[in-house]
Amino acid sequence: MTTAHSFTRHDITFPSGDSNCAGWLYLPAGVTSPPVVILGHGLGATREMRLDAFAERFAQAGIAAMAFTYRHFGDSGGHPRQLLSIKRQLADWDSAIAYVKARHDVDRARVAVWGSSFGGGHAITVASRHPELRAAVAQCPFTDGLASALALGPVASLRMTPVLARDLTARVRGKAPAMVPIAASPGSPALMNAPDALPGYEALMPKGRTFRNEVAARVIPTIATYRPGRAAKKVAIPILFCVSNTDSVTPPAQTLRYARTAPRGKIKRYDAGHFDFYTGETFETLARDQIEFLTRQLAPVSAPSTP
User: Fold this and answer.
1) CB-count exposure of residue 183 (10 Å: 0-12, 13-18, 19+)
2) Which H or E run includes 101?
C-alpha cells in the first residue's frame, strides 16, 4: 500500500494581463522535482470551493498542485469585480502555466491541467493549445454553450435579457456592471437554475464564508457561443473526461460526443449529479480515479530515503 505524502501549502500570486491571480501551491514532501497539476474552477467559483480538497489529494500522491482563482474573483486582482470573461480566464490559464514553468521546485517538463465545470471546458481548450503538457483532466466539463442554454430553459434565458441590456449600456458608459445571479432556484433568471444548482453551489463554500452569487451580465452571449468541446479533437495529449450521467448543468450526451473525438481521450462516467462531484463518496471515487490517471501520465518518483 502506498504511503500518503505529507505536503506544505504556499500562498502564491502570479501576473496575468493587467493584474494578478492568487493561488495555493501544494508541494509534496519526499519527492524530488515533483510533477505539477494546475487546477481551475467553474462559473464564478474560487479555489476555496473544494479545489483545495482535490489539490491536497494530488499532493498526498506525490504530485505538486497549484489551485488558482481567476482575475476579477475572490482575492485575485482585476476590475471591475465579478467580471466573467472567457478570453481573460483562458489568458489566466496561460499565465498559470508560464508561472509553473518558471519555478525551480517542480518539474517544468511534467505539467498537467485540471478543470471542473466551466473550468473543465477551459482545460480542453488549454490542452488543445499546449501540446507540451503531459495530461489534462476535464471534470463534469462545460463543453457546449448552446446545450447548456437549452438546459437552462428558454423562459429563464429570456428573463435575463433586460439585465443584459442594462449591463451592455453600463459597459459603454463606463459605469458599474449590472449583475445576474450565478445560481438560483428553478425557473429563476441565472446562469444555472437546475434544482441542485443553488444548494450545490452553496455547499462548496467552507462554513462561515460566503460567495458572491453574481457576475456581470455581459458574459451571457459569450457563454452561449462558447463550445470548448469542439477543441477535444485537437487535444494530442492524454485527457481524462469525468462525466456525470445525470448532469443538470452540462448535459452529458453532448459532452460524451465531444470526448469521443479526443485522440487519446479516456472517459469515466459517474452516477452522481454535477455538484455531487465535489463532496462525499463521489469525491473520493473521483480523486482515486484522477490520481491513478495523473500518476500514470506524470510518474511522480519519491526521493530515496537517507540512511
Assistant:
1) buried
2) helix 86-101
The strand pairing partners of 138, in sequence order, are 115, 241
> How far apart (Å, rounded) are the C-alpha atoms in residues 195 and 42?
18
Per residue in 86-95, pLDDT tens? 999 999 999 9
C-alpha–C-alpha distance, residues 244 and 252, integer Å = 6
Dump pLDDT digits (tens) for 195-237.
999 999 999 999 888 789 999 999 988 998 999 999 999 999 9
Q: Cα separation of 261 and 177, whole Å?
A: 38
Burial class for 6, CB neighbours closer than 10 Å (0-12, 13-18, 19+)? exposed
- What is this structure's pTM? 0.94
The grid coordinates listed for 188 are: 429563476
Distance CA 57, CA 290 (A): 10
Angstrom distance (rounded) from CA 291 to CA 298:
10
